[in-house]
Amino acid sequence: MRRRVQSFVLGLALIVAVGVMASLGARVLAEPMTGEPQHLAMETLTISTHDGARRFHVQVANTEETREKGLMFRRAMPADEGMIFDFFAPQPVSFWMRNTWIGLDIIFIDGEGRVINVAANARPMDETPLSSLGPARAVLELNAGEARRLGIQPGDLVSDDQIFKSRRMN
Fold it and tell me: Is the model's pTM score more than 0.85?
């Protein structure tokens, strides 16, 4: 009998704990996420894939503040736009989707301008870290599904006017 009572009390405590956590989680998600999207200088970026060149108009996030905010609070983005994050030197990097309302493909790029890996279809508002599979000089964010649709994959070459200008393709 005593064992049953202990099991019942532990079970009840677990149910209460899960209920409290769920209500706190619901409250956190229900809190309004406030802020304005940032608007940074734009440049044209090209990715050379096996199917040809893919061009995008991207905002350049090249300070700690602009990289930290990224595409937060944006409700939509044209298919041919994105944001590139310049870290100036290759290093391990991870991204998450805090306060990001749109799904994204996160493309990690090494110091030579080659795609390392693609974290496809990152879920809006998800705080799960998405990491580079090697040292990344830059990270490109595009609308979710664009990498697959355009055939962007590891090994593809990225060129632009600022970060990978020495690799610029004609």
Answer: no
- What ranges do the domains of the chain cover? 1-31, 42-167
C-alpha dist (Å) from residue 87 to 6, 62, 84, 93, 108: 55, 7, 10, 9, 11
Give the DSSP H or E segment for 53: strand 52-61
- 8 A C-beta contact, residue 30 and residue 15: no
pLDDT, tens digit, for every residue of 116-156? 999 999 999 999 999 999 999 999 999 999 999 999 999 99
Domain 42-167: give its CATH architecture.
Sandwich (2.60)
Q: Is 9 helix (H, G, I), strand (E, B) or coil?
A: helix
Of 92, 82, 88, the closest CA to residue 111 belongs to 88
113-127 burial code (b ≥16 CB/10 A, e <16): bbbbbbbbebeeeee
Q: How many CA atoms lie within 13 A of 26 on its CB side?
A: 6
Residues 99, 44: Cα–Cα separation, whole Å: 26
101 strand-pairing partners: none
